[in-house]
Amino acid sequence: MAAAYVTTITNNTGYIDFTYDTGMIESVQKGSFRVALKDDIVYLIFNNNPYSTEVRSDISLDHANIAAYATSALIRTAILGFNVNPAQDGITTALRIVDYAHHEIHSGSSFHCYFNITTAATTAHRSGIYIKTPAAGGKLVHLIVEFSCTAAADLSIHEAPTLTANIGTHGVAIYNRYRDSVKASGCFDNATTPAVNKVTTLTEANIAAGSWAAGTVLMKEPLNAGGGPKPAGGNSRGSEEIILAANTAYVFMITNTVATANVHHISLDWYEHTNI
């Protein structure tokens, strides 16, 4: 059965009338919490005063908003839904679904950074991105990475490597993938005083000068020269994603395997979510 959508909301003394596109009219007593969908906007109707005509609307029905309303002393009961299903298409009844990683983009919690460099024509020339995750108890980083090169090379992922503080180029931008969002990443760079919402990029000279030790090598495999970006681990998010350890440094690295000038490209995409 198709979802019923509200066409009009009428305030009355002590109750509110919801008129649906089916022609049905539903009367809801004030003093309760009510959700209705009208013109793709979720309306929150609530008030303890049955003689008030307050109608509140909010597009975002997230936990923060619910908590704010619940502590306002206006809500005493919660009645969610009834005949309204905002996740269902009103014509075809098909569910309107995005996967979770896509949802995190919409919520402003998905981030991106990258590094491009042309190396010298030397074997074992390296480049990388350094990133340190938020403190334990905060948000976890759910990350995927892509590598590419123009000549033969290996990719590798290093957990808790040794690298001298303040080595590399710091303050490199992390971009929110929802460009209007003001949310910032909780990750840090390798500066002496680490900057939040930044990463550090590393050249061969940086790595050689940084007392480098590889740490735990989570992955090492060859890259196909000129083959385009290669996801590390697989071809779907389920096989690519790594949930990084809290309060831990990581370096994502490319290493030449031939003595040829090589264009290295590293791209990190992740979302940050508090563990349940």
* Main pleated-sheet profile: 6 strands, antiparallel
Order of helices and strands: EEEEEEHHEEEEEEEHEEHEEE
**Unreliable parts:** 36-43, 45-85
- Summed up, the helix count is 4
Mean pLDDT: 78
Helix content: under 10%
* Helix/strand class: mainly beta
Our count of domains comes out at 2
- How many strands? 18
Shape: elongated
The Cα radius of gyration reads 26 Å
Strand fraction equals 35-45%
Provide a descriptive summary of the structure in words.
With 276 residues, the protein is mainly beta. The chain folds into 2 domains: 1-97, no CATH class; 100-274, no CATH class. The chain is built from 4 helices and 18 strands. It has helices at 63-70, 100-106, 204-209, 237-240; strands at 6-12, 15-20, 25-29, 33-38, 41-46, 56-57, 110-118, 126-132, 139-149, 153-159, 169-173, 175-176, 198-202, 216-223, 230-231, 242-244, 249-256, 263-274. β2 (15-20) and β3 form a beta hairpin. Mean pLDDT is 78; it is low at 36-43 and 45-85.
Condensed summary:
The protein has 276 residues and is mainly β.
Fold topology:
Blueprint: E1 6-12, E2 15-20, E3 25-29, E4 33-38, E5 41-46, E6 56-57, H1 63-70, H2 100-106, E7 110-118, E8 126-132, E9 139-149, E10 153-159, E11 169-173, E12 175-176, E13 198-202, H3 204-209, E14 216-223, E15 230-231, H4 237-240, E16 242-244, E17 249-256, E18 263-274
Antiparallel strand pairs: 1-2, 2-3, 4-5, 5-6, 7-12, 7-18, 8-13, 8-17, 9-15, 9-16, 9-18, 10-14, 10-17, 11-13
Features:
276 residues, 6-stranded antiparallel β-sheet, 4 helices, 18 strands
